[in-house]
Amino acid sequence: MDIYVLLSFLLFLLIFAGVGMASILVKKDTTDDYLVAGRGMHPALAALSAVSTWNSGFMFIGFIGFMWLYGYPAIWVSIVSTLGQLVAWIWLYKRIQNEAKERNVRSLSSLVAKVKGAPEAKLAALLSVCFLLIYAAAQLSSGGKALFAMLGWDQTVGILIGYMLVILYCTAGGIRASIWTDAAQSCVMIVGSSLLCWVALQNVGGFSGLHQSLTSIDPDLTNLAPKNLKFGFSLWIFAFFLGGLGVAGQPQVVSRVMTLESDADRKKACLWFFVWQTPFLFLMIIIGLASRVMFPVEGVFDPELALPKLAMDVLGPFWVGVILASIFAATMSTADSQVLACTAAITDDLIPEWSQNHSATKLTTISMAIVATMISLGALYSGNNSVFSLVVLAVYGLGGVFIPLLIVRFSGYQPSSEHSIIMMIAALSGVIAWRAMGLNNDIFESVPGMGAAFIAHFVMLASKKDPWLMEKIPNRDVLITIIGIIISVIVSIELWYIYA
Fold first, then answer.
1. What is the predicted pLDDT for the residue at 4?
2. How many Cβ atoms from other residues are within 10 Å of residue 265's Cβ?
3. Which of 177, 191, 240, 350 could form an S-S bond across to 20 if both were Cys, CB 3.0 to 4.6 Å?
4. Separation of alpha carbons 122 and 133, rounded Å
5. Which of 143, 136, 159, 96 is nearest to 393 (CA)?
6. At 267, is the pLDDT very low, low, confident or very high (cuts 50, 70, 90)?
7. Tell me: the pLDDT tens digits for 34-59?
8. Which domain holds residue 73?
9. What was the pLDDT predicted at 38?
10. How many C-beta atoms surround the C-beta of residue 19 within 10 A?
């Protein structure tokens, strides 16, 4: 272990932690301030935090490993997912923010029902807690992997340090501490990532050298069309679009939108989000591809350790420590955000009598942090600690539970409790069954999850001969035109895929 790497890591980790702890100076001892920062957060801070929270350990560890394994085809994840996120920011977030402010709710699960504590809200809260704990465990695993790769520390040590940082943020300023830390590490990380990307490109001979080297390793790495897709290319990329749209079904990201005061702030935050995330995605794509060239042999190391190992190979000790601290701080503040989202779901919907009890709220948060840590340690010792796999399960599970219901409600239909619960159970069953059958290796769980929920919705409407359905169905000519356009697009895409 390089002592200078350790010193740099500790220095920047203390800086990031200090930024989060500084939120103590402006916090108020209320549950609203603890969970949604009093709905007065600056749009730029909320947006930078949303970028960090949405990506964090998944981007630094999981996505880099995915790029290493698949090469160019993995670029589709970024492109198509970004389109889905744009739809979420423009349409779904607008409705979410307005309704949350009007009803004074702080959890996403409250929005699937007309009133807090309704049966469907309780089920949504319970499911979101389960998936968020898996998600938080994945963040702790990311931090453990980063420390293992760059400092040689046992992953258990990294997970436990992460747990202590999560508790630190929780006892400081709640969500404000997470947002401030996210913003600080995002600024530092984009500088470090830019440097890492530049140096890595020089080491692999620039873009032309990168392309040639990847082709020599495996020609499939430089083919935008992935091979042997069981369900075709159209459905494969559509899953990424639904995954991006699913950002509006992630309570820890939605909580950032809930901290904004007005719709004007949401629009500013939207601009900040994509201006910041787009170049960051580009940097991560190049770093992931360069890592495949630098470490070309499969089976020699964990692909999810590619970014830390690349940084150690091409950067000096100071910058290695900076990147490690940024990764670790990002994953820990994100884990804290997910734990806080669990707290909001529990106190708003499962045990509403705690909603204004600040002490009970904090105790709930600490309890959730302990459970997430136990899940992370259990995944480590059972050998099931793939960050990418854990995040995909959590993201698409949450997206399947929330997005169809939110779309249905925002489209003007008010489902009954029974209707909503059946939709959620259908989504959950679709996600679990898809993964149990091993089909998630071909199509991510977003398609069966959301698909099952919408199928359940329309079957129930049709069986009841609900007049709302008949009003929404377009006339025959329009319907034929829409179907024709969809078929034409799918056929064109599949023809390209076949002959690519």
1. 85
2. 21
3. 177
4. 17
5. 136
6. very high
7. 777 667 788 998 888 888 877 766 67
8. 3-418
9. 66
10. 18
Q: What is the overall mean pLDDT for the chain?
A: 84
Cβ 494 vs Cβ 232: under 8 Å: yes
**CA–CA separation, 95 vs 158, rounded Å?**
39
DSSP 31-74: HHHHHHGGG---HHHHHHHHHHHHHHHIIIIIIHHHHHHH-GGG
Torsion, Cα 444 329 335 304, to 10 degrees, reads 30
Report, in this order, helix, strand and coil percent for the chain, each rounded to 5: 85, 0, 15
Residue 441 lies in a domain: no
Query: Would you say residue 440 lies in a domain?
Result: no
| Residue 104: count of CB within 10 angstroms of its CB | 12
Assigned token pair, 149: 């790769």
- The residue whose two tokens read 């779904």 is 92
Q: What is the distance of C-alpha 174 from the center of its chain? A: 20
- Cβ atoms of 152 and 303 within 8 Å: the answer is no
Among 113, 48, 117, residue whose Cα is nearest residue 352: 117
DSSP for residue 296? -
In this model, does residue 314 exceed pLDDT 80? Answer: yes
Identify which has the larger pLDDT, 62 or 408: 408
Q: How many domains does the chain have?
A: 1
As a whole number of angstroms, the distance between CA 125 and CA 402 comes to: 10
Question: How far apart are alpha carbons 151 and 298 in whole angstroms?
Answer: 23
- DSSP result, 415-463: --HHHHHHHHHHHHHHHHHHHHTTGGGTS-THHHHHHHHHHHHHHHHHH
The DSSP element (H or E) to which 270 belongs, if any, is helix 263-294
Q: Could you give phi then psi for residue 302, rounded to 5 degrees?
A: -75, 120
Widest CA span in the chain: 72
What local confidence, expressed as pLDDT, does residue 488 receive?
92
Is residue 224 included in any domain, yes or no? yes
Cα(466)–Cα(457) distance, integer angstroms: 11
Residue 291, both tokens: 């890592």
121-174 pLDDT tens trace: 889 888 888 888 888 888 888 788 878 877 888 888 888 888 888 787 777 767
For the ranges 368-372, 443-447, 470-474, the lowest mean pLDDT is seen at 470-474
Strands, E, within 178-221: which ranges? none
* CATH number of the domain within which 370 lies: 1.20.1730.10
Q: How confident is the model at residue 251 (pLDDT cuts 50, 70, 90)?
A: confident
Report if residue 456 sits inside a domain: no
Q: Could you identify the residue written with the tokens 């790029």?
A: 67
CB atoms within 10 A of CB 339: 31
Sequence length of the chain is 500
Q: What is the pTM of this model?
A: 0.84
Q: Residue with structure tokens 């707290």?
A: 343
What are the φ and ψ backbone dihedral angles of 204, each rounded to 5 degrees? Answer: -105, 10
